[in-house]
Amino acid sequence: MSQKFSIYWYQQGPEFKQAFLYNLRDNDVQQGGKIPLGAIIQGSVGLVAAEAEVFGWTGKLVPFNANRRCEWQGYELPCMASPALPAGKVSGGILRDWNYAVAAITSDQVKSMAESLKIPVVKTPEGTWVINVELARFERQGAGRRATLI
What are phi and psi of 144, to 5 degrees? Predict the structure, then answer.
């Protein structure tokens, strides 16, 4: 099976894994600067809020702007998913190409659920508390981050 991308940044260094930047491919990052904790970075396969600082690299940082709603662990949350996703119900094949999204923490109960699942809650530079969620379904994926677009 051929790969769609030539560089998967989470395979290039532990700093990308530690920050949960699994959405970055090929030319999504450049050397220099830093990706701050909580900054939302737009990657080839979706959006992720950095769960740790990444020094020596930069990418396309975007402010949190909810454009969808998603269901996560029984909660309906404002989410920021790729603007490339079509409106309405989205098939699994399309979701695989835009797997990563960012969901806003809307209550103490949502925050507690994330913490109980060991999912980092981070604050964006604009002050919104968020978690990273995954929209597609993969065999080895943990169920804790799975979300469904509404």
Answer: -60, -35
Residue 3 CB burial class (10 angstroms; 0-12, 13-18, ≥19) = exposed
CA dihedral 53, 58, 62, 68 (to 10 degrees): -70
Six-digit token string for 65:
């702007």
Radius of gyration of the chain (CA): 14
Token code pair at residue 52: 């740790």
Q: Enter the DSSP assignment of 139.
A: T
Domain boundaries, the chain: 9-62, 68-149
Token pair of 138 as six digits: 């993969």
**More confident call, 99 vs 128:** 128
With beta carbons less than 8 A apart as the criterion, state whether 101 and 82 touch.
yes
Task: Read off the pLDDT of residues 14-34 as tens digits, 9 standing for 90 and up.
Answer: 899 999 998 898 999 999 999
Residues contacting 85, CB < 8 A, separation 6+: 68, 94, 95, 98, 149
